[in-house]
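Friendly challenge for the regulars: who can give me the structure tokens for this chain first? No prize, just bragging rights.
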Amino acid sequence: MGLTGIQIFKMLPKTNCGECGVPTCLAFAMNLASGKAELDACPYVSEEAREQLAEASAPPIRPVAIGAGVRAFKIGGETVMFRHEKTFYNPTALGALVTSDTDAAALDQKLKEWNALQFERVGINLRPDLVALKDVNGDAAAFGAAAKKIASESEFNLVLMSDKVDVLKAGVEADGFKKPLLYAATADNADDLGNLAKENNLPLAVKADDVDGLVALTDKLTGMGLKDLVLDGGAREPKQLFENQVGIRRAALKAGNRSVGFPTITFPCEMAGNLDMETVIAGLLIAKYAGIVILSDFKGESLFPLLLERLNIYTDPQRPMTVTQGIYEVGSPDENSPVLITTNFSLTYFIVSGEIEASRIPSWLLIMDTEGLSVMTAWAAGKFVGDAVGMFVKKCGIADKVKHRKIIIPGYAAAISGDMEEELPDWEILIGPRDASLIPKFLKDLK
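First reply, four minutes later:
Bragging rights claimed.
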């Protein structure tokens, strides 16, 4: 942020209307300065102040929207060097490369295989984001046909790659509705590609031999009125690319250099001779600030670890992933079905519910809000203790759904059973297994 809370406050209307969600304009200004509020939340800010504040409150790395449809995404928008300082916001987009001379049948097969690569993890659908279409022979018609096929027959968004303006124009005509990223403006073609991107309101990648070259190009393109840029510093050797990634991020965040305040695109597919090594490099780049990573192919055994790494890095470290407190049906439970209880840490929920499903015994699963803590941590923090758990069981309504009075608690929380019995004198407290993998056997033996 370029302004302090007090500086922002001076430009606000000072009505203290509360319509922004906080009681005073000063509180709103402080939230705006710390990135916890959006300027649009204030309905009375003047247009003049809005322009100044919008620029001052913009992230040092510009967020860039790419694509349309269910796999549209944003890159950039980051405000810190390390996720533990605050959080990272817009996850690295993962793409795979195809060439414009790829046979239509082969492209069909690739798209079907790649589209099937979707994984469920803690209730989140993990999947790749885009296809990078590379011109290899200057055939604008073939390039346009391939772009149209990818855009219309798959969910994937696109990076259109060519150094020929007429080829890129054919691609834009074929799939402009998908808002593709154009790659790449260089010192030789910056004017033509800049105009093409501006005319079609598309994001544009910028490529140079080094970071200094990027600065000259981005200054030129922003001077033309372009704002949505993506950087490629040209490095194709891991050490130099790593240095570039860190240097660009540091210059934007620490030095306030707006000329490099844009997300980056990287190409492990041009840096290794096999997909395994590309995956290793991609893992480094996800951790170190890449906005887009392009691989030569998608294979489940390499893609899933990258998606999982991305999920972990781009999860807010100050806000655990949680599920909503309440009663969950696993299978089709009835009044005689077992009742289990656990915390609302999402990973705990999905592991426990998965093991219950594996037992094939329909059950009621009570999820108690412990602010996203796991069972042991919540117990140690005093958030999953006997009297609190007992009170939750009373109030959640499970007594109206079952005619028995038995509840299964996690083995790691066995110590709470005594206090639960005092709070729930009519209930029998059963101590379940410590390891979730033993839940199926426990439920079967219970019967």
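The first strand starts at residue 64 and ends at 66. The chain has 16 helices and 17 strands. Your move, everyone else.
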